[in-house]
Design a protein that fits this description.
Number of strands: 3
Distance between the termini: 98 Å
Strand content: 15-25%
Strand order of the largest sheet: 1-2-3
Shape: rod-shaped
Number of domains: 1
Largest sheet: 3 strands, antiparallel
Order of helices and strands: HHHEEHE
Length: 171
Amino acid sequence: MHNAQHLRHALSRRRPARRGERGQGLVEFSLMVVFLSILLMGVLDLGRAYFSYLALKDAAQEGAYFGSAFPQCQVQGTAGNGCDDPNNIPYRVKHSAPQGSLVNMNDLNALIVTDAPVVAAGQVLTVTVSYQYQLLTPLVGAIVNGQTLTLTARSSAVIVRVPDCTQKPCS
């Protein structure tokens, strides 16, 4: 019984803080909070960049799939050829992302390029979408050498048919 009382007494005693150790825990916590906050912001920024890349990839796929069925509508057409909005590849690419999302395809930063060397069935049509993504975290910008990342997504599809545009409307 005497040993149990002695053990309780020993455990209940607190070691007095040394003069140089006062506030050490607070300083360590402050340093770690700053480091972890910067790390978390960098991870969130790169996550936003990856989400934006996926949106660009979806937009390029939408343009390629539409272009595989209507290859003559690579740009907005003149009146009567059936390629007015929304029936052209750039319109489909720009409006594939929901409004108010991270990627604004109507922004001047978005570049849409279609490549079909010959508009014929069996040829490959490639749609490339580039976007200038602005980083928010300065530390990530220092690592990747600038606050702007150029995100580029490319998608290809085989042209399945070439519509007969000699008759109006082109279908």
